[in-house]
Write a structure and sequence with these properties.
The radius of gyration is 22 Å and the shape is globular. α3 crosses α10 and α4 packs parallel to α5. A 9-stranded mixed sheet has the order 4-12-11-10-9-5-6-8-7, sandwiched between helices. It has 15 helices and 19 strands. By secondary structure, it is of the alpha/beta class. It has 2 domains: about 140 residues, Aspartate Aminotransferase, domain 1; about 270 residues, Type I PLP-dependent aspartate aminotransferase-like (Major domain) (Aspartate Aminotransferase, domain 2, 3-Layer(aba) Sandwich), CATH 3.40.640. It binds pyridoxal-5'-phosphate. It catalyses: (sulfur carrier)-H + L-cysteine = (sulfur carrier)-SH + L-alanine. One of its GO terms (molecular function) is cysteine desulfurase activity. Its EC number is 2.8.1.7.
Length: about 425
């Protein structure tokens, strides 16, 4: 059974008070809180095992190396990947940039096409703008419907000009052809919570752009639902450890072995080399080829422990819990919406949405609403959520976002809703 109160007892920070009120942490899409087990694992590493990995024959170095190897095995099992396909990076952003610099920059040519969607986080948008500019490739952007769901089919495209790139927008089907070499899409939107249909996307790619690779931004999926890279049909997937109960500084890029093997390294230096001669250098095999320099050893070990914790809760149970919470929150917010008090963004069906409630209080800037909520101890994010184009699509400058995780309760959602009612009063609306 999924016992939220028992889970909450594992998170020391949830005992905090904010200005005298109990903390109601509704910003897990930005970063999750960490259970004591993860905090202990980090302290244990620094207290008893701290040494660099792969660098020494001494006991501490061997222990640290084994701990990192074990964490890699845990990650691989968690996403059903091969161990040497798991590359440790600092965060999803670094993983996405690794693909941009070490794969796309080498593989794309003038007039090739990269397809992204309007839902992308800036970290899965800006690198593609830069690479397209550099190699003379084109950027195509999948549009969304009024509930923020990707438009998969439909004809008619629009060309946007005015910047350095000529960008074409439309449905996925209308944007795919044999020039497309990469489709880079998020599995779950951090702004609207939209769960994108990766299986259908893969089918369309196979039909219309068979040589295109699929990169999935898993930053908001891997922490919240069972992820199996063999079923996902992707070629690459990036995600961040800090959004899944792990420490900051830990992240993962997964890639298909044959593609990773064909790529040049991203960073050069220690730990990624085969042989170094003054006249030239060879590279180590996977995964070391992409892990130059000292990694965040404690972060990686902490991520392994976070995965143990998530596995003990069960990823399907976590998804069910969050689906129930978002369904509950949407039901409550819709009543307010009918009264004209708030505007809610994103899919209305909990099956199509992660645990992310995005809204605005009518007539109040999202930052002001978030500040009022903070007075009651409620932490929500406000602004553009590193997704300026999707926020603008809904004709607003900013949105407020409450995001849920394993420790979120219905009581906290009730409290949020009650305090949202207070917001207009503060501004005498
Ligand atoms: C969908 C998505 N992609 C990528 C990122 C970037 O993650 P990080 O800042 O950990 O690199 C985020 C962070 O919010 C995200 O939500």
């Amino acid at each position: 059974m999924f016992d939220v109160n028992k889970i909450r007892a594992d998170f020391p920070i949830l005992e905090r008070k904010i200005g005298g009120a109990p903390l109601v942490y509704l910003d897990s899409a930005a970063t999750s809180q960490k259970p004591k087990r993860v905090l202990d694992a980090i302290a244990d590493f620094y207290t008893k095992h701290n040494a660099n990995i792969h660098r020494g024959v001494h006991t501490l170095s061997a222990e640290a190396t084994t701990m990192v190897d074990e964490a890699r095995e845990k990650v691989a099992k968690f996403i059903n990947a091969k161990t040497d396909e798991v590359i440790f990076v600092r965060n999803a952003t670094e993983g996405l940039n690794l693909v941009a610099y070490a794969w796309a920059r080498q593989s794309l040519k003038k007039n090739d096409v990269v397809v992204i969607s309007l839902l992308e986080h800036h970290s899965n948008m800006v690198p593609w703008q830069i690479i397209c500019e550099e190699v003379g490739a084109h950027l195509h952007v999948i549009e969304v419907d009024d509930e923020g769901r990707l438009l998969l089919t439909g004809t008619g495209t629009t060309q946007l000009t005015g910047g350095k790139l000529v960008v074409t927008t439309g449905s996925l089907e209308s944007l795919l052809d044999e020039r497309v070499k990469l489709v880079a899409v998020t599995a779950v939107s951090n702004v609207l919570g939209t769960i994108t249909p990766t299986e259908e996307i893969k089918k369309l790619i196979k039909k219309k752009s068979p040589s295109a690779k699929l990169l999935v931004d898993g930053a908001q999926m891997v922490p919240h639902m069972k992820t199996d890279v063999t079923k996902l049909g992707a070629d690459f997937m990036a995600f961040s450890g800090h959004k899944m109960l792990g420490p900051t500084g830990s992240g993962v890029l997964w890639g298909k072995r044959e593609i990773l093997e064909s790529m040049k390294p991203f960073l050069y230096g220690g730990d990624m080399i085969g042989e170094v001669r003054l006249t030239g250098t060879t590279w180590s095999g996977l995964p070391n080829k992409f892990e130059a320099g000292t990694p965040d050893i404690a972060g990686i070990i902490g991520l392994g422990t976070a995965i143990d914790y998530l596995t003990s809760l069960g990823m399907d149970n976590i998804r069910e819990h969050e689906k129930e919470l978002i369904g509950y929150a949407l039901g409550k917010m819709e009543k307010f919406e009918k009264k004209g008090l708030v505007e809610v963004f994103g899919p209305r069906n909990a099956d199509e949405r992660g645990g992310v409630l995005t809204f605005n209080v009518k007539g109040v800037h999202a930052h002001d609403a978030a500040q009022v909520l903070d007075k009651y101890g409620i932490a929500v994010r406000s602004g553009q959520h590193c997704g300026a184009p999707i926020v603008e699509r809904f004709k607003t400058l900013a949105m407020a976002r409450a995001s849920f995780y394993v420790y979120t309760t219905k009581g906290e959602i009730d409290f949020l809703i009650e305090k949202i009612k207070e917001v207009p009063k503060v501004f005498s609306l």
